[in-house]
Specification:
Blueprint (H helix, E strand, L loop, with lengths): L2 H46 L4 H4 L2 H20 L7 H23 L14 H112 L1 H123 L3 H11 L3 H33 L6 H7 L4 H17 L1 H15 L2 H5 L1
Helix pairs in contact: 1-3, 1-4, 1-5, 3-4, 3-5, 4-5, 6-8, 8-10, 8-11, 9-10, 10-11
């Protein structure tokens, strides 16, 4: 169990409580609204059944207040674990059904004749006056279920919080026990420190006593030494004789020491010469290493310069390639613009060629046809131009239709291959695909014909029947 689980449980309990308040609020609002909505019908119903108007208006508020009281009290008590029994259920349903019957009586029996099952009810009025009471009754029952679920979940989350509280209490208790143990250990350490200080004081006192005893012993020893020195003076004469003998022995020792010093000097000289030889070898080795390091640095510098030159060359090639690609793209864009301009001019020429014959009235056209019969060569050339423009237009329409069918069948070739079928270039093929896409979006009839043709090509039955 963690603090995060406890926080989630608290948030869940808060959410459930908000939901309970929302359910209760909605029920009360719906009940109050239903009271206002049904007050007129119930008052009219009471007056029509011989209740004086001065008290007829009290009927609907009394029934609605009892219903609202049952709903509100059930909602409040359910938060404390209350489970509504039979009487609260009967109260809710009786108040709700009574309100519904009083509202819908005029719609059930519009002719004011009770016949058991209604013979000629008013469906619209029945629906109109049934909405609010039915909503109140059903929402009251649903609210009871919501409250039961919310109470159960709150109990589960409360148990979670209780477990976490117990866990935190146990942790605090353990921390308190640990703090108490540490305090006791600190007190024990302080007591041990005081004991060590007392022992040290006692030791210092014993040391002072021992020092005093040592001084007394030293004085006694001093007296003893003076007595012995006097005896030593007496032995000095004898010592001088002995000193002469020792002098001779010391001279011999000095000779031996000089010989040993000469040997040490010789060995030191040899050691210095050996060290000089070692230093020379080390200097030579250092010089060789320095030369090798300089050669290595020169090689690294050469490689760096070579790498920079290669990088510069690579960058130059990349820039040249990018510039070539840019020029190619600009040329392609320019070619596309020129192709569009050519298509626009051709379309204008076709429109002009197509519109010119239709702009002449029929009588004038007949007269001119008689006049132009004398020059058949020029008329034939103009007719050939019109026929050529019409053929191009039909070819473009057929190619656009074929491109749309191939795209729909997912078997469209490349723009270049498609244009080659009609003896055209790649730009012409790209324009046909663009026209096909545009026509599929803007022309519903064109799209229907393309779909029919695609279905005909994919359906094997016509081929077998043929």
């Amino acid at each position: 169990m963690t603090a995060e689980d406890a926080d989630k449980a608290r948030k869940a309990i808060a959410d459930l409580e908000r939901i309970e308040r929302l359910v209760t609020t909605v029920l009360v609002i719906l009940g109050v609204g239903g009271l206002i909505f049904t007050a007129v019908n119930v008052t009219v119903f009471a007056k029509e059944h011989h209740v004086h108007w001065a008290i007829a208006w009290m009927l609907d508020p009394l029934v609605s207040v009892s219903l609202l009281a049952a709903l509100f009290i059930d909602g409040k008590l359910s938060a404390h674990g209350y489970r509504p029994g039979g009487w609260p259920f009967a109260l809710r349903w009786f108040a709700g059904l009574a309100t519904w019957l009083m509202n819908c009586w005029g719609s059930l029996y519009p002719d004011a004749v009770f016949t058991g099952w209604p013979d000629r009810p008013d469906p619209a009025g029945l629906l109109l006056h049934s909405v609010i009471p039915v909503l109140v009754i059903f929402l009251a029952e649903a609210g009871a279920g919501y409250r039961k679920f919310a109470v159960g979940r709150k109990a589960a989350h409360s148990n979670t919080l209780s477990d976490w509280t117990d866990q935190e209490e146990a942790r605090r208790k353990a921390d308190a026990d640990e703090a108490r143990r540490r305090a006791e250990a600190d007190r024990a350490d302080e007591e041990a420190e005081r004991k060590r200080a007392a022992d040290l004081d006692a030791e210092e006192k014993r040391a002072a006593i021992e020092a005093q005893k040592a001084r007394d012993l030293a004085e006694a020893e001093s007296r003893k030494i003076r007595a012995e020195s006097e005896a030593e003076a007496r032995r000095a004469v004898q010592a001088r004789a002995d000193a002469e003998a020792r002098r001779k022995a010391d001279a011999d020792d000095e000779e031996r020491r000089r010989a040993a010093a000469a040997e040490e000097a010789r060995l030191a000289k040899e050691a210095r010469e050996q060290q000089a030889l070692i230093d020379a070898e080390n200097a030579e080795r250092s010089a060789r290493h320095a030369s090798e390091a300089k050669a290595h640095e020169a090689e690294l510098e050469r490689q760096r310069i070579l790498a920079e030159a290669q990088a510069t060359a690579t960058r130059t090639r990349a820039e040249a390639a990018a510039e070539a690609e840019r020029l190619r793209a600009e040329a392609q864009i320019k070619a596309d613009e020129e192709a569009r301009e050519e298509r626009r001019k051709a379309a204008e020429a076709r429109r002009a060629a197509t519109a010119e014959p239709t702009a002449i009235p029929s009588a004038e056209a007949t007269a001119k046809s008689r006049k132009l019969s004398a020059v058949p060569q020029n008329r034939t050339a103009e007719t050939d131009d019109v026929k050529g423009a019409e053929a191009k237009r039909k070819q473009i329409e057929a190619a656009t239709f074929e491109a749309a069918v191939l795209v729909l069948l997912d078997s469209a070739p490349t723009r270049k291959d498609f244009a080659a079928r009609y003896g055209r270039g790649e730009t012409w093929g790209r324009d046909r695909y663009a026209d096909a896409d545009k026509a599929m979006v803007e022309d519903a009839d064109f799209a229907a014909r393309v779909l029919a043709e695609a279905e005909r090509r994919t359906d094997p039955a016509p081929a077998h029947s043929a």
